[in-house]
Amino acid sequence: MRLFYLSEHRSCFNYQLRYESGFSRYELTAHEEGRIDNDGCFCVLFVLKGEVQVGLGREHTISVHANRMVLIPQREENRLTGITPAECLLLFWNKEITVCDKMYFDSISHEKPIATNDHTLPIRKPLLHALRQVLFYLETGLLCRHMHILKQQEIILILRGFYAKNELAGFFAGASGMGSKFEDLILNNYRKVKTVKEFASLCCVSERSFNRKFQHYFNQSPYQWMQERKAELIHEKICDPEIAFREIAMEFGFSSSAHLTCYCKKQFGTTPTHLREESHIKKQS
């Protein structure tokens, strides 16, 4: 099938943009040797046809045959040899994944992995279907950056739906940047939400589970912690002379500037005007 409007695609910034993550075809003839450039990120090798011998480090060697996949860690010395003519697909992992997926991969890290010698996994039918679609897009020249991102998201969804966590724990054991620590998720996203319920929803867990995990990591309830961060943000904006008190009141859900003043007196022991004046004096001194 021919790709329509090829010149339009090629003129797009996202089409021409060079980037480290995404999919690419990889083929080896029998006895041919190669190496994967994994300096920028870890990658997943999907063997679709034939058999490949994958050497990791100085001693570890894995034979990966058709319809199996293996992870090659970032900056891990590697060497590939075609046992038979092989057709493969490489996914150089884009680490900018959703909060939901980060939480999922964080949960995987706590699973006891299935004991295997090679850490390969089968390419199951739903995944094989998605990989064949990627090959088709590559062959037709649909090289848009968004295609790569969307297809990786689809593959993550397939892994979550059709592979057990203990399988994936072993498979991704050598990967860096899969998820983020729970603390990082909280610190990177707390400004996006206003309630504990919204925070739990953002992390794709129940409010009860979120409260329990938060208490474990931060030694206080998420509500208390969020109130403290809210006070810090309000103080920060009050000290900015470019922001009107009315705007601050609206942003943080106060019914009026007078309501903001009452909050400040209770929280900081003084009015917003006095806080701003104190901040100005400190900056001048």
TrEMBL record:
Domain HTH araC/xylS-type per the UniProt entry, residue ranges: 180-278
GO MF term list: DNA-binding transcription factor activity; sequence-specific DNA binding
Entry keyword annotation includes Transcription: yes
Keyword annotations of the record: DNA-binding, Transcription, Transcription regulation
Protein name: Putative virulence regulon transcriptional activator, VirF-like
Gene: virF_2
The keyword Metal-binding is assigned to this record: no
